[in-house]
Amino acid sequence: MAGGVTxxxxxxxxxxxxxxxxxxxxxxxxxxxxxSGSNIPGQVRAASGVGTTDGSVSFAVDDNRTPWQAGPFxxxxxxxxxxxxxxxxxxxxxxxLLVSKLGLPGALTPERNATLTENLGAxxxxxxxxxxxxxxxYFGDVAATDAAWPIVQAAALGGxxxxxxxxxxxxxxLSLRGSYAAEVGSTYGVVSAGRWGTAxxxxxxxxxxxxxxxxxxxPVDSPLYVTQAISPLTSTNWADFIxxxxxxxxxxxxxxxxxxxxxxxxxxxxxxxGGTGSVxxxxxxxxxxxxxxxxxxxxxxxxxxxxxxxxxxxxxxTGVTFSIAPVTMIRTSLPGMQLHTADDPAIWSARTAxxxxxxxVLSAVLPGTPQSSWSLIGDVAESVFGxxxxxxxxxxxxxxxxxxxGMVARGADIIADTDLADLPADIxxxxxxxxxxxxxxxxxxQTSTTGSITVWEATDAVQVGAxxxxxxxxxxxxxxxxxxxxxxxxxxxxxxxxxxRWAAATSRDGGGTQxxxxxxxxxxxxxSPNRVRIRITNTTSSTLWTVDGNGNPTLTxxxxxxxxxxxxxxxxxxxxxxxxxxxxxxxxxxxxxxxxVAQGLLAWLAAMTSQPLPTLSDVDIxxxxxxxxxxxxxxxxxxxxxxxxxVLVTGVNTSYSxxxxxxQSLTLVVLGVLNWDVARWxxxxxxxxxxxxxxxxxxxxxxxxxxxxxxxAKGAIA
Amino acid sequence: xxxxxARLGPxxxxxxxxxxxxxxxxxxxxxxxxxxxxxxxxxVQYGPRAPRTWTTSNTWLTPDQAAYLTACAQGAVAGDLYLxxxxxxxxxxLRPHLAAPGSAGDTALGDVxxxxxxxxxxxxxxxxxxxxxxxxxxxTIPVLPGVAYTLSCWAxxxxxxxxxxxxxxxxxxxxxxxxxxxxxxxxxxxxxxxxAVTTFTPGAIAVGVQLxxxxxxxxxxxxxxxxxxxxPDASWVQGVGAGQxxxxxxxxxxxxxxxxxxxxxxxxxxxxxx
Lengths: 718, 274
Known about the structure:
- The complex is a heterodimer.
- By secondary structure, chain A is mainly beta.
- Chain A has nine helices and 52 strands.
- Chain A starts with a strand and ends with a helix.
- Mean pLDDT of chain A is 82; it is low at 233-239.
- By secondary structure, chain B is mainly beta.
- Chain B is built from three helices and 19 strands.
- In chain B, the strands form four sheets. In chain B, strands 1, 2, 3, 6, 7, 17, 18 and 19 form an eight-stranded antiparallel sheet that branches. A five-stranded antiparallel sheet of chain B has the order 8-9-16-11-14.
- Strand 1 of chain A pairs parallel with strand 5 of chain B, so a sheet runs across the interface.
């Protein structure tokens, strides 16, 4: 590019209906990407909400294919567009879309055209998220869910996966992507500080030391596989799982680039017999798989990465023949864990969604109205002021509000003199607010230690024949955990307001003598947090009805934890309501449940709307196919407009034609300088005194605070 | 083929065209796009290929002399048309993207190499990178049966290549595209930069030749040249090329009608395609 001469090229791959994408001879194409939102003002919305992409392609066919001859000519196939700015540069993805319409401009021409739309696929399908409830962690904290979890769930239901979906032979799956709930199997215990962070690969993971036990009863006389994602938070002690059986323990742990495997027998008569081996983790490895062969006389363990070659075995031989014992529990602190019994290539399927932690902690996800996955993702994204889109390479990407404000690594600078054809900008008052209020809806979470929270009461009497068992299902309005055991209503120790209660009578109207305390055996099991299965067994020799002495249906289910939809809370900043000229109100709904998070969002919204922010639309730039939506760059135009600022790429239009070649225009949002930028600039960490000294040295002793602040702001993006 | 400027027709049926007036024009249509920046700098993008258009004219031709070209123009001749010009046969029968593979990022012969090949008279030239496996066969270049051709190229490698290293391969094909004969183009002397040359004579039913980069990673191949007979020296001449074309309907100006003859002026436009 030094001489300003480039030879761009592009590659367009289309599936014209036969299921096989082929490279077509394209004469032109264009792709438009933009972010949109609905409930927040334009200058904020410009950087949050849901991304939309569409495009078009004109191409020629050799076989004169039409809808009526020469093979398939049907929409619905996939389309891929790649481009490179110059000879010798690798092609960069521009878009992965869906052919929504195919056309032929005329009967005699070999030209065909295709209209491309976002490949939402199954994301259009309606989903209802499973109800989840914060669990109490080992430390007594509430191990809450991150709002990333509903995004991960909705994306997976729509075919975009952070981790592969459970394979056919999966017996336990725990993704740890914002929730401690197991996808397959059940979570046994959580040892965690209950917070969520973002790994180096951009995906949500448990922050700090976390381990979750999943109970399983898998026999181990055949190979077992444990596959996990390598999402290191730090380079040390990043990998960890323990597979525990009655006979012993398999431990896999990572430090730096070394993965250590150890197997140890703990059961009598042989104790503390163990073996250890280690392997080096290949750079860039995404997933690690451990194979455990646990027989009656020995344990063999080996590992591999991303479906590559196996390591050698770590073998522990006991010399004593044990009867086969099941694996009872597996503990993991690495995300994306699956315990499966067969080698399955699907476990290596590539990641198609990147979802970082949102920072919004949810104590309960309550039953919601069914909506499409994509709409749900958009709702969550807007509520936490993030954005979601399907990126250039076809990966569903959620971006946090921090990233949208530029708290990410920056790409190369954009220099107006050499990179831009022009720099049109506008700045308006439309989106400025002098008062900002946000409302959010924390659930009403009740806890108890005595089983005194009533979560359901029967409205109908249940008739149970002599010696029979009847199963009924209770649908709760909210989500419950730790169900209280059942006692008859007439037992007063513990008091009648505690524990689940039943009453029984030998006639429907409540007549007859009071049955024995053991007349009914009642048990309740959580099918899901808002659905309970109640089994009632009549141990007597006569028919019983679950009514009290007056014939009123009496089955009362109580629990220690119960969450129901709470009232909305509104907080505000800026001018008082009665004097505000241009107030702004945003409903964050139930995707924000924490007061601190809501305050943070309010402050962010107030900062974004306190003054008009310029936006730059249709900025024609020297085409660079490596520029991506969501990129943060520094735009420098010291000679013409004086603009030197961080900018966020919120829209990208890229087009190619055989005559005009590659063209690109961007929509940019000018970002303010954050303390984060200043701190990064002043790294290695300087004290306040040292920083003040720097400013004084540069500006002189009479420097005011505002002058120093401006100097820091300028320096931070210098 | 003395006396005629070109042959035209499907592979295996290249017929001589009538002589044309001097001053035949060749036009190149390479896409170009300029982008002036705020700072006054101009950036230019060029398209990967420059399809050519030849405009020729004949005066006082009889209808039967123009019959073949007219048949080609109206689509009466079956098969894809190829143009084989006399100037290409003497300079370089390879089209520009095959004669200088990798130019403008063209990948018809393989991936563009990060290295270049130093060619006499040109200096460093872009080229394509060889790989452990042989590349894919190129499009078919029309050749005449029984005529001796010389095929050459230049190759460069990080370390010295021994003499006799095969860097390029050719194969002749018949009208059905079926392979007939094959050969390699080997370096004639040892060195990190070397010219490779070979000669071959297509058999009686051969209609075209295809090329590919020979197996063996680490080499950069460029400056290909295919001529009738040996070229005058080892230097490279840009691709003039024999390739697929389309013929526009002619412009006809009737000049005279006698009892036994009709004479007209014809103007032809022949376009490079593919």
